[in-house]
Amino acid sequence: MPHLDPTDALDLDDELDEVERLIRDTVSAFVRDRVTDHVAEWFEAGTFPTSELAPELGKLGLLGMHLEGYGCAGASATAYGVACRELEAADSGLRSFVSVQGSLVMFPIHRYGSKEQKQEWLPRLASGEAIGCFGLTEPDQGSDPGGMRTQAKRDGGGTSRSSGAESGGDWILNGTKMWITNGSVADVAVVWARTEEGIRGFLVPKDTPGFTTGEIHRKLSLRASVTAELHLEDVRLPHSAVLPGVTGLRGPLSCLSEARFGILCGVVGAARTCYLSALEYSTTREQFGRQIGGFQLTQEKLARMQVEFVRSQLLALRLSRLKDTGKLRPEQVSLGKLANVRAALDIARSARTVLGANGITTEYPVLRHANNLETVLTYEGTEEIHTLVVGESVTGLAAYR
């Protein structure tokens, strides 16, 4: 009986063009050479070698790769999705770093920033010379960013380099942001704050007086990733620090939609790693005188994992093509994140049961991925929020309040 390719049962790689396959192979090789053998140690130690990996990721063109100009690769959405998949096959923390840099920091500067802001930050961020973070979530405001307490008030009497009345004077920011990936290692933070005109985005360099960070420790998930709090106490910024191209929640929400696309593609890689780990183990582990993969209950698990994996592959590819044609809608992204993260988490949990007690160690990747996916299920919109987005989309009735 012919065998299905467990990594591509429906020959979906045939749908990729030459450039997309080259990116797939390049990222896969980088992950294999630089990450796979070390990521379990990073996870256990709760560290991520940002200063080492950022320039390498930049050299490969992976930082802001879906953006045009300013040192960005200008790759297709499908190519970006494939890259995210290969990165997250190693660890969600690695893909998160690339997603935050490209989709949450570079994207808003690229879309809403001034010419000067783009020239100052995008080339450095694309090369990995500079690191960015995205400040939206607050200690008391997660799923409802419209209730943020961080405020920015005008101060026309400022003495910074802004040009006074013509530029609108300085801004004074106060507030706290929580659960910020890259927060304590970032050179610039994209901070969203409430103003009299509505929510605005601000570029806050790390050495700005009054701006401090504190790294969050004792995590049980996404440990190979830097997570921090941002504190802004009377932070004075020139008017030139404001992202001029957007006012209101559509600014940060558009960034989140970009990041969610990377997630729905990336988790396919985590699911693949867990599935392949369980499959290999089932053909080498023997009990009762035979390989455990030959038992019906184990095959049921493997078959169910294969079905969920294929579904997530199909969904990621379809949404990637929609994004490439400019037709992808935010509610479709929500559907994709909801479905694919659920599938990846189910696969990781099931794979752990195939590995038995061995599955709880860092010798195998499955429980590390499962733990990471618990965070992925929550960030960039919780499972509940995406459920309500899909629910509203199909009924026309909002159920958030």
From TrEMBL:
The Acyl-CoA dehydrogenase/oxidase N-terminal domain, residue ranges: 18-129
Annotated coiled-coil segments of the chain: none
GO biological process, one term: fatty acid beta-oxidation using acyl-CoA dehydrogenase
Stored InterPro entries: Acyl-CoA_Oxase/DH_mid-dom, Acyl-CoA_Oxase/DH_mid-dom_sf, AcylCo_DH-like_C, AcylCo_DH/oxidase_C, AcylCoA_DH/ox_N, AcylCoA_DH/ox_N_sf, AcylCoA_DH/oxidase_NM_dom_sf, Glutaryl-CoA_DH_mitochondrial
Alphabetical list of Pfam families matching this protein: Acyl-CoA_dh_1 (PF00441), Acyl-CoA_dh_M (PF02770), Acyl-CoA_dh_N (PF02771)
Domain called Acyl-CoA dehydrogenase/oxidase C-terminal: residue spans: 248-394
Region annotated Disordered, chain positions: 136-169
Required cofactor(s): FAD
Keywords assigned by UniProt, alphabetized: FAD, Flavoprotein, Oxidoreductase, Transit peptide
GO MF terms held by the record: fatty-acyl-CoA binding; flavin adenine dinucleotide binding; glutaryl-CoA dehydrogenase activity
Keyword Flavoprotein tagged: yes
Boundaries of every Acyl-CoA oxidase/dehydrogenase middle domain copy: 133-235
Family under the similarity heading: Belongs to the acyl-CoA dehydrogenase family.
Protein name stated in the entry: Acyl-CoA dehydrogenase
